[in-house]
Amino acid sequence: MAPPRLPKDIPPDLLEQARARFREFPLTRDWRLTVDRLGPGQAVMGLEPSVITSGSAGVVTGGVLATLADLACALALCTRFDGRMPFATSDLHIRYLEPATSRVAAEASVLRAGLHSAVLECRMRCDGRIVALCTAHFTLKREPGDDK
Fold it and tell me: Which of 8, 22, 85, 129 has the fewest CB atoms within 10 Å distance of its CB?
């Protein structure tokens, strides 16, 4: 069986579905997250720093950046499944390069998607500077009749 491929297009309402999903997501409800863009195998999310997401020095905390990267990668991968998320994060590696002191844009993309797993990358930027790099591995849960 050939490995699954990313779709050429995504459903027109998928961006709004993603925004609605994260608007009330309990963990991040007050994080000032935005879902800015979705495309086949790609997602861009934003985070506006606040007292909830930043330490005393005004820098977005590493745990918040890791969570943002995980969420952005999950959104990029869900474009392959029409918005469904039949997968789980199995590994995430993040390298912090510079302090994140302003709005963070998390740009995630699928690097490889197979039958049982997927590898993604997320670059987080503040004012055009890359402040963190992340790679994530997801285990895919095969659903009956799912041959995408």
Answer: 8
Cα 52 to chain centroid, rounded: 20
The long-range contacts involving 59-65, CB below 8 angstroms and separated by at least 24 positions, are 59/99, 59/100, 59/101, 60/99, 60/100, 60/101, 60/104, 62/94, 62/96, 64/31, 65/94, 65/96, 65/100, 65/104, 65/124, 65/131, 65/132
Domain that holds residue 121: 14-140
What does the block give as tokens for 23? Answer: 């608007």
Residue 2: inside a domain, yes or no? no
pTM of the full predicted structure?
0.89
Classify residue 26: in a domain, yes or no.
yes
CATH number at residue 50: 3.10.129.10
Strand, coil or helix: 141: coil
Count of domains observed in the chain: 1
d(CA 140, CA 133): 23
pLDDT in tens, 57-115: 899 999 999 999 999 999 999 999 888 889 999 999 999 999 999 999 999 999 999 88
